[in-house]
């Protein structure tokens, strides 16, 4: 008896949705392809449409136009219970009056799955999620990480074709969140289920995903692998949002060299046209304080566990991110240079 159904493809095809009382589209002509077994992360600022897309897939809201296809089948014609979609909400929504095994088997019971099969599937889900020793425990006795596992086990027990996770790590404290992230990825990949995962945390998206969808104001800004997004951001928003990069323009000297802040010559991560204006993402790992650098003034400083992250404005008005182990007050004069062998990321077409 298989405990996991075959992973399905999921396709949003030109989806448009406006809430009844809304003037602006919550989802505006969005198309996303999720391949079978793929882990795709939706990321973007609050209100960009991430959770709305999950709710459309789950059948909780109906789009004004467009198609939702699961394994090529028009899912919009199916009621929610027929779509075979697993749902893990941010709150986990566990039943306090049921023990762990009963929570995991709840969906199966609603489907009137025979008792023997139900008990087998619950047992297998508890093993998969590594919580079999908690089977008889009360929900009230669980930690945040254990609650998350129970919610995922319950969602997987009904053999979903697609699993939807709406900020499943948001309820955890920061230290626990980082510790559980890798564990969650391992669990999802071991299950083999197609997963659509929502987060507002950029580092979480880059760490977990096979493919990342960057959203803003209901529109897709870019879809790519984490490496593709980092090295080839489509526009200034993607570059700044994903890596807190500062954006500037520079003149290209030749195929791989540009000049910023008056005299800093820098290599770029891809070919540019000589003489053209190039848009660049400046990241703190690209720069350092150096006696050979350009003059600048610290305009922002923030302590972050043994290092100060700063922004320094050059004489030419270019803002450069840089780090220091020593505290430098706002207003301090510094010299900033490009690190040896560093390459600056070209944004979009570079123009």
SSE topology:
Layout: E1 10-17, E2 27-34, E3 39-43, H1 50-58, E4 65-70, E5 73-74, E6 85-88, H2 100-104, H3 106-110, H4 115-128, H5 144-157, E7 162-166, H6 174-191, E8 194-199, H7 202-208, E9 211-216, E10 219-224, H8 226-231, H9 236-243, E11 246-252, E12 257-260, E13 264-268, E14 277-282, E15 287-303, E16 308-314, E17 319-324, E18 333-338, E19 343-346
Parallel strand pairs: 3-8, 3-9, 6-7, 7-8, 13-19
Antiparallel strand pairs: 1-2, 1-4, 4-5, 9-10, 11-12, 11-14, 12-13, 14-19, 15-16, 15-18, 16-17
Helix pairs in contact: 4-5
Structure explained in plain terms:
This protein is an alpha+beta fold and 351 residues long. It has 2 domains: 10-237, P-loop containing nucleotide triphosphate hydrolases (Rossmann fold, 3-Layer(aba) Sandwich); 244-346, no CATH class. It is 25% helix and 34% strand. It contains 9 helices and 19 strands. The strands form 4 sheets. Strands 6-7-8-3-9-10 form a 6-stranded mixed beta sheet, sandwiched between helices. Helix 4 (115-128) packs across helix 5 (144-157). The longest helix is centred in the middle third of the chain and has 18 residues, at 174-191. It starts with 9 loop residues before the first strand and ends in a 5-residue tail after the last strand. The mean pLDDT is 91.
């Amino acid at each position: 008896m298989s405990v996991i159904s075959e992973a399905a493809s999921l396709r949003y095809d030109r989806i448009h949705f406006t809430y009844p009382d809304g003037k602006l589209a919550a989802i505006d002509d969005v198309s996303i392809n999720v391949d079978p077994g793929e882990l795709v992360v939706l990321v973007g600022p609050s209100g960009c449409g991430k959770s709305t897309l999950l709710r459309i897939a789950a059948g909780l809201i109906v789009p004004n136009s467009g198609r939702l296809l699961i394994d090529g089948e028009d899912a919009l014609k199916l009621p929610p219970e027929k779509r075979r979609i697993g749902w893990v909400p941010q709150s986990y929504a566990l039943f306090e009056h049921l023990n762990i095994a009963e929570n995991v088997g709840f969906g199966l019971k609603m489907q009137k799955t025979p008792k023997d099969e139900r008990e087998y599937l619950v047992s297998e889900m508890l093993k998969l999620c590594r919580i079999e020793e908690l089977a008889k425990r009360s929900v009230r006795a669980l930690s945040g990480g254990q609650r998350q596992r129970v919610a995922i086990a319950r969602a997987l027990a009904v053999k979903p074709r697609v699993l939807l996770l709406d900020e499943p790590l948001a309820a955890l404290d920061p230290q626990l969140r980082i510790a559980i992230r890798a564990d969650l990825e391992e669990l999802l990949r071991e299950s083999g289920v197609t997963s659509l995962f929502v987060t507002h945390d950029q580092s979480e998206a880059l760490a977990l995903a096979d493919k990342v969808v960057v959203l803003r104001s209901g529109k897709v800004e870019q879809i790519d692998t984490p490496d593709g997004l980092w090295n080839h951001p489509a526009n200034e928003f993607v570059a700044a949002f994903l890596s807190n990069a500062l954006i500037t323009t520079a003149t290209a000297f030749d195929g791989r060299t540009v000049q910023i802040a008056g005299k800093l010559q820098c290599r770029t991560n891809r070919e540019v046209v000589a003489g053209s204006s190039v848009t660049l993402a400046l990241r703190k790992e690209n720069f350092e304080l150096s006696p050979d650098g350009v003059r600048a003034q610290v305009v922002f400083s923030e302590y972050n566990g043994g290092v100060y992250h700063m922004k320094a404005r050059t004489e030419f008005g270019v803002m450069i991110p840089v780090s220091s182990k020593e505290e430098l007050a706002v207003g301090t004069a510094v010299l900033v240079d490009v690190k040896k062998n560093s390459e600056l990321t070209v944004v979009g077409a570079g123009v």
